[in-house]
Amino acid sequence: MFDYNSKYIDIYNDPILGKYATHLASFAKKESKIVSNDLNPWPEKESIDCLNFISILSSENKLVYKEFNKDSSFLLLKQSKPSKLAIVVAGGGYGCVCTLPEALPVAVALYKQGFSALTFDYGVKDKAIYPLNDLSTLISFLEKNERELNIVISDYMVIGFSAGAHLVGSLGSSNLGYVQSGLPKPGLLVLSYPVITMLEPHCHIGTRNNLLGLSPTLEEKEKYSLELHVDNDYPNTFIWVCKDDNVVDSSNSCLMDEALKKNNVIHDFVVYPSNVHGFGIARNTVASSWMERMLGFYFDKCRK
Questions:
Q1: With a threshold of 0.90, does the pTM exceed it?
Q2: What is the pLDDT of residues 189-202, one digit of tens each?
Q3: What is the CATH number of the domain that holds 137?
Q4: Which helix (H) or strand (E) holds 137?
Q5: Is residue 44 situated within a structural domain?
Q6: β-strand pairing of 72-77 with 83-89
Q7: Closest by alpha carbon to 227, among 250, 254, 247, 205?
Q8: How many C-alpha atoms does 170 have within 13 Å on its Cβ side?
Q9: 275-280 average pLDDT score
Q10: Does the residue 46 lie in any domain?
Q11: CB 247, CB 274: distance < 8 Å
Q12: For the chain, what is the mean pLDDT?
């Protein structure tokens, strides 16, 4: 059992979860405690509870783990019968992927709501130009193995956080997204406190540096600015952000909201009164309603 004294190294050494440790915790120093003030405002208690929960699922053969390459992998919480699919993509500024604190609690919550939910790890740093290829490979694999994995690919949702939301938003883009890759159209994209633009003055410079390098051309910046690549085939979208986000300016979310409105894309946009970035599941915070509202939007607007 994991508790508040557990360290990340304990995940690597765990006889059950050790094989998933790199996927869950590669962003963290192994000797650091999982519950640490350094991780605020991430929901640390959620991380501990989720590790213990997926330990039980693993012992019941309800976890499916696959590595596509050394930079890309997924961990599926598998239902006992075919179920709607939710893909959860953590952020980290394209410099790391914060799966344990940010994505896993959301995947567990959706699993408990009856979804087949998975967390996804993708290429970062010098491999950060390829994460959309990684995501496309994942979705293609899931589509081909739908029956074996007990997933229902139709109307699947993809949930991203921060830079992970930029990756998720790219899946819908007219120049790089699902149409170009021959993938099924997502039922819903969820953009949580997202990085949207690579253009000044609203871009998050650290994320852009990791994705495009220190001296990107205007063409490169425009290519990966999501607000420039929305058309009326863009998937239904749910955006949520804190008004005074102290890391990624909330103007990113406003740019995307405007682009979606302009192209008559069905979407919802929620702004919470806080300056926090990185809320994740956001339980017991001012943003705690985001998942309930998102699921209401999904069931009302996004299923065929």
A1: yes
A2: 999 999 999 999 99
A3: 3.40.50.1820
A4: helix 131-144
A5: no
A6: unpaired
A7: 254
A8: 26
A9: 88
A10: no
A11: no
A12: 94
Q: Each residue of 100-145: pLDDT tens digit?
A: 999 999 999 999 999 999 999 999 988 767 799 999 999 999 999 9
DSSP 181-247: HTPPPPSEEEEES-----STTTS-HHHHHHHH-SS--HHHHHHT-GGGS--TTSPPEEEEEETT-SS
Which residue range forms the structural domain that includes residue 104? Answer: 71-295
Q: Closest Cα partner for 23 from 84, 80, 88?
A: 88
pLDDT at 254 over 70: yes
Residue entry with tokens 């899931």 = 142
What's at 156, amino acid-wise? Y
**Residue 2, helix vs strand vs coil:** coil
Query: Which pLDDT belongs to residue 241?
Result: 98
Residue 211 pLDDT > 80: yes
Q: Count H helices, E strands: the chain?
A: 11, 8
Is 66 part of a structural domain of the chain? no
Phi, then psi, of 225 in degrees rounded to 5 = -95, 105
SS percent in the chain: helix, strand, coil, step 5: 40, 20, 40
Q: How many domains does the chain have?
A: 1
- Considering the domain boundaries, does residue 53 fall inside one? no
